[in-house]
Amino acid sequence: MERIYNFSAGPAVLPREVLEQASDELMNWNGCGMSVMEMSHRGKEFGSILETAEADLRMLMAIPDNYRILFLQGGATLQFAQVPLNLLGGGSADYIVTGDWSKKAYKEAQRYGSIRLVANTEADGFTSFPDWPDLDLDRNAAYLHLCTNETIRGVEVLDFDTLPQGVPLVADMSSHILSRPMDVSRFGLIYAGAQKNVGPPGICLVIVREDLLGKVAPGTPTLLDYAIQAENHSMLNTPPTFAIYMAGLVFKWLLRLGGLDAMERINTEKARLLYGLIEGSGFYHNPVQPAHRSRMNVPFTLREPKLDETFIAEAKRHGIVQIKGHKSVGGMRASIYNAMPVEGVATLVNYMKEFEKAHG
Ligand code: PMP
Predict the structure, then answer these.
(1) pLDDT tens per residue, range 210-227
(2) Fold of the domain spanning 17-256
(3) Structure pTM?
């Protein structure tokens, strides 16, 4: 059976080569006579899978030696709590709200200490990022939290050079990690749920600068203590072994492709194709300010909302699925993560042109 083009925001499309390799190795990983799902997480086979995945990720993202890499559970959502529990240290933190996910992070953090809201773009419909120089930032904050790619509204920080310095930055990068080279040293902590650019659901990557560890709030469950997780190589308890193995295959795939520079070129091309069509059309519309349009999640509306259902049904006949926008926004959303090939986006763009001709 041929595969279809899956534009889901997550769990999302995985690279075909990765799925093929996992399928080949499913019954018998590396001659050991069993699947990765069946082996002991304490055995040398899984030990090598975890170690290789970590080393490959370090290479791909050029993660400096003073950062620890953790493969945790509870998704990015648990990080909304785990970050303040570990980093506040009795102090306060600043939060920037630029979409649904950073808003959730801000709300959750308030349960654990003193949290200041320093910017909120909700009044303009979450279609931009604030100008940093205008913000009243606390120079003594334990950290400043932001979401660098808002998955639902399709708003992305494309230029990290514009980010403020001085206070450790904590970034939710769930929906654009690994989409391009990123200077990790600009951040105190990066977290990302896996089910978009990293692998299947089940793990959340945390990349944390060592000097920020060791300030965990009293009463925090042991499993949620970054420092203890780091000491135990993310194996304090049974980790989601198969998800980590799959992430490792994705890292190898990215390395074979030429790393994140190569990935960025492909992602830029895909975004250019899709935004090019939307901008040149009076029929499709994307509300986000051009400088902040996400290269990963592209929401758009049709001129007539009553055409939405027809658009989705006909898309399916063209082999295009999971294109419906988030329920809070409506319209459509095409998530064009790393594993979505250029041909997938070209197929979508051609379909959109045809649809406009027929219904515009
Ligand atoms: N942050 C962002 C930016 C997301 O896109 C998502 C999930 N779509 C989350 C957090 C929550 O992730 P999870 O479901 O892994 O908890």
Answers:
(1) 999 999 999 999 999 999
(2) Aspartate Aminotransferase; domain 2 (3.40.640)
(3) 0.98
